[in-house]
Design brief:
Shape: elongated
Function: May be involved in several stages of intracellular trafficking. May play a role in intracellular protein transport from early endosomes to the trans-Golgi network.
Largest sheet: 3 strands, antiparallel
InterPro entries: AH/BAR_dom_sf, PX_dom, PX_dom_sf, SNX8/Mvp1, SNX8/Mvp1_PX, Snx8_BAR_dom
Order of helices and strands: HEEEHHHHHHHHHHHH
Strand content: 5-15%
Structural class: mainly alpha
Family: Belongs to the sorting nexin family.
Strand order of the largest sheet: 1-2-3
Subcellular location: Early endosome membrane
Protein name: Sorting nexin-8
Oligomer: single chain
């Protein structure tokens, strides 16, 4: 792991114990923020990385270093398996682990759930939706692309890339990978439970962390909105390029159909002239060039879809995961902390009331015990709140590490346009000499084609 990546240890700090149940009225865990699993303390593993020097809050990563962590390919497996309900399988290959495994969509779902369980305070990209019935080829291809973006963002994320769950998902080739993932994730607690710095996260945070968080969140939301519009326009340009390729191909085919027409012409219409025959021969030959133009236009649209639209989608997926993380922070940790404080104040009032009313000593002792337990809950909630802000600060930095991807996207777009126009211009230029016979004069001598302005009276 590089720079400020988290230093994870199996043993949980004493102050970072899992929250005990305050009482039977506590809120159930939110669906988008799984409750962390509690594990027994263990001896530190010697294979864990040591704490990075300096402030561990700061990430010292570049975009090139992130992209070099791994390159994961996700390809469709042509065969469909299953006796009754057919399903799609994917071949997932990792450059880092030199592995190639077969995965179903539900395997990705379990992997996603385990990531949220182990890393509730990190950017976990969302999965594409699952369509139960009627999944056409277009939907399957779009989902394959989305799964590829998901797994590459995960494989390059600093904490995720060093976690055993990722290695298991990318390299385990045995049966029942879903149970293996669950067993692997449930044998330890979440990142808060295993991070050596969890109890001291507050010490590394700037004093104005809440203000910084609000500003960063607004900025990233604005960036998301702008990139969303850029992606939509890029998709429209690709769609137009695909339509242009199809139109060029049909245009050439129609020219070929004209040239291949065998309908005889009456002599009184042609006046014994061979002009139409020469024209037909020339038109028939032009279809080859138009087919080549269509091929180059289609190739350019495919290149821009892969190098421009997909990279924009990748960055949008990252930004969306940041927005989701901000919501989990506010609706999860902060909300639970406020509920715990409210419950604590109610217990204190009950204790005061019991003392005034001279209740049974056992009843008062039980209430005092519950108050102490609730104080421990509040203490752990506060630690989790600071650790969540700690992670948010790092995830914000990670988003900014990805920002130079903008120049990669623009560079790919400009290069594609230059190359595409250059190749098509050459075909158009090669096509022009073949038009000479189409502009033959009255005595068979070629005459240049007239420009659109010819024949118009100047005013």
């Amino acid at each position: 792991m590089t720079g400020g990546a988290m230093d994870l240890l199996p043993a949980a700090p004493a102050a970072a114990a899992a929250e005990p149940e305050a009482d039977e009225e506590a809120d159930p865990p939110a669906a988008d923020s799984p409750a962390p699993q509690v594990s027994e303390p263990r001896a530190p593993a010697s294979s864990r990385m040591q704490m990075p020097p300096g402030n561990p809050l700061l990430l010292s990563l570049t975009l090139q270093e992130l992209l070099a962590r791994d390159a994961v390919q996700v390809e469709l497996i042509p065969e469909k398996k299953g006796l009754f309900l057919k399903h799609v399988e994917y071949e997932v290959s990792s450059q880092r682990f030199k592995s190639c495994v077969c995965r179903r969509y539900n395997d990705f779902v379990v992997f996603h759930e385990m990531l949220l369980q182990k890393f509730p305070y990190r950017m976990v990209p969302a999965l594409p939706p699952k369509r139960m019935l009627g999944a056409d080829r277009e939907f399957i291809e779009a989902r394959r692309r989305a799964l590829k973006r998901f797994i590459n963002l995960v494989a390059r994320h600093p904490p995720f890339s060093e976690d055993v769950v990722l290695k298991l998902f990318l390299s385990f080739s045995g049966p029942d990978v879903q149970n293996k993932l669950k067993e692997c994730a449930q044998c330890v607690g979440d990142e808060f439970m295993n991070c050596k710095l969890a109890a001291r996260a507050k010490d590394f945070l700037p004093a104005d962390i809440q203000t910084q968080f609000a500003i960063s969140r607004e900025l990233i939301c604005n960036i998301y909105n702008s990139f969303h519009k850029l992606r939509d326009r890029a998709e429209r340009m690709v769609s137009r390029a695909i339509d242009n390729a199809a139109d060029l191909l049909i245009f050439g085919k129609e020219l070929s159909a004209l040239g291949s027409d065998t309908t005889p012409l009456p002599s009184w219409a042609t006046l014994n002239s061979s002009t139409w025959g020469s024209l037909k021969q020339a038109l028939k030959g032009l279809s080859v060039e138009f087919a080549l133009l269509a091929e180059k236009a289609a190739r350019q649209s495919k290149q821009e879809e892969n190098d421009v639209v997909e990279k924009l989608n990748l960055f949008l997926d990252l930004l969306q995961s940041y927005k989701d993380l901000c919501e989990r922070h506010e609706k999860g940790v902060l909300h639970k902390h406020q509920r715990a404080l409210h419950k604590y104040s109610l217990m204190k009032r009950q204790l005061t009331s019991a003392a005034v009313q001279n209740r049974e000593p056992e009843s008062v002792e039980q209430l005092e015990s519950r108050i102490v337990e609730q104080e421990n809950v509040i203490q752990t909630m506060e630690l989790r709140n600071y650790f969540s802000l700690y992670c948010l600060h790092q995830e914000t930095q990670l988003v900014h590490v990805y920002l130079p991807l903008t120049s990669h996207i623009l560079g790919a777009f400009v290069s594609s346009q230059i190359q595409g126009h250059k190749e098509m211009s050459k075909v158009w230029n090669d096509l022009q000499p073949k038009l000479q016979c189409l502009f033959a004069g009255p005595h068979g001598a070629p005459s240049p084609p007239r420009s659109p302005q010819d024949g118009l009276s100047p005013h």
